[in-house]
Amino acid sequence: MLVSKYNPKFDGCLHVQQYKQLSELYLENFNAPVLTYNEFVDRINSDDVTIYTFEVGDKVVATASGYLYPSLLHGGQPRMQIENVCTRKEHQGNGYASHLIGLLIELAEEKGCYKVSLSCSDKNLDFYQNRGFKQHEHTMRIDLV
Ligand SMILES: CC(C)(COP(=O)(O)OP(=O)(O)OC[C@H]1O[C@@H](n2cnc3c(N)ncnc32)[C@H](O)[C@@H]1OP(=O)(O)O)[C@@H](O)C(=O)NCCC(=O)NCCS
Fold first, then answer.
1. d(CA 5, CA 115)
2. What secondary structure letter does DSSP report for 84?
3. 101-144, pLDDT tens digit by residue?
4. Which of 16, 25, 116, 126 has a CA positioned 20 to 30 A from the CA of residue 133?
């Protein structure tokens, strides 16, 4: 088992093969459109995003990402938004997502973030609450596409 960490802006990106598996995971769990590797690199290389992957053998079986943003209301101090948390069905329940979320929280602490937040559906409220998150205010959105 191997945990890998990528920040395309600062440390280089995933390899093509790992991206291919990551995009399969995103498609399976979020019905996300599959970008080519070059599109993926182009679209995320200006963001401060850290992508963690959990690999078993040569397969990416779980992932979680953390985006860092400076907050104008906190003197530019960063906050982290966790996104894209998922584990392949046949590997769920082994603690992989919990482990990756823990690593993101450690990273947020190292980076001096004042908070870590995420949005989730009702069905995952218990999962995050059991991992220390608490419900706070509401997420509002307008769908543009
Ligand atoms: C939610 C998800 C990421 C958990 O991944 P995982 O690797 O199986 O998680 P872990 O093994 O670290 O944790 C599993 C634990 O969470 C519990 N759990 C998993 N999904 C849960 C849910 N929706 N609600 C409550 N508990 C949940 C399991 O029962 C298990 O409990 P335990 O610690 O008492 O054994 C995974 O179920 C998944 O990929 N779901 C589909 C995609 C998704 O909804 N992602 C979240 C987007 S915000």
1. 21
2. E
3. 999 999 999 999 999 999 999 999 999 999 999 999 999 999 99
4. 25
- Each residue's pLDDT tens digit, 4-26: 999 877 777 888 999 999 999 99
Largest distance between two CA atoms of the chain = 44
Nearest to 133 by CA among 102, 88, 87: 102
Domains of the chain: 2-129 (3.40.630.30)
Pocket test for ligand 1, best of 30, 124, 135, 139 (most atoms within 8 A of CB): 124
Query: Could you read off the pLDDT of 72-97 as tens digits, one per residue?
Result: 999 999 999 999 999 999 999 999 99
The atom number, within ligand 1, closest to the CA of 87 reads 39
Angle between helices 37-44 and 16-30 (to 10 degrees): 80
Instruction: Pick the residue whose CA is nearest to atom 29 on ligand 1.
Output: 93
